[in-house]
Amino acid sequence: MDNSSGVGVLDKAALVLSALESGPATLAGLVGATGLARPTAHRLAVALEHHRMVARDIQGRFILGPRLGELAAAAGEDRLLASAGPVLTHLRDVTGESAQLYRRQGDMRICVAAAERLSGLRDTVPVGSTLPMKAGSAAQILMAWEEPERLHRGLQGARFTATALSGVRRRGWAQSVGEREPGVASVSAPVRGPSNRVVAAVSVSGPIERLTRHPGRMHAQAIVDAAARLSEALRRTTG
Predict the structure, then answer these.
(1) Which of 93, 94, 106, 126 shows a CA-CA span of 20 to 30 A to 85?
(2) Boundaries of each HTH iclR-type domain copy (predicted)?
């Protein structure tokens, strides 16, 4: 079968990525595996590294980069959303509060699914809402397990600290009280994809009057259980 798409540079980049599928490669190894000229192989590998599709291991060899995992996780979003409805509804019923699912997109987070409280005072976050990554328990979750460089950048101007995120990683959940919006508290936990990478945050939110100033004491276990169910659903559908 002819693997040529007619777009030469893309075909060559695909050759480089395919060559790295079997493991780390030196530049000489890439040249041997792809049949590309040495300067071409080097130029493409470095360009792909710029876009995080290629990275280097501790010995300086080329390896597949983190961006590929992020794209694969995004491709799994429909599976995540298919599982989210029943899990969020159960979480809302157990806690009595609105439940949301957030994914990171650049410097923002997006509510991709929600189950609203049926009556009384609500903290409504409509599906499709875009919120900052600088405040709130879901932002803490989506930031806490980031690569060190992105973590350092993300903490600039944030309402939470590196020490707080260290606590989040240790506990496995996050809480916020009036951090994103006055009078609102929330608790969140990480949803992990098959590679154990954090791909989303599941949350409950509501008025401080109901959730108190220590919302994790009330709802952390329910949140962690919901996150575990969503993580298991992703493992099941991709296995």
Answers:
(1) 106
(2) 7-66
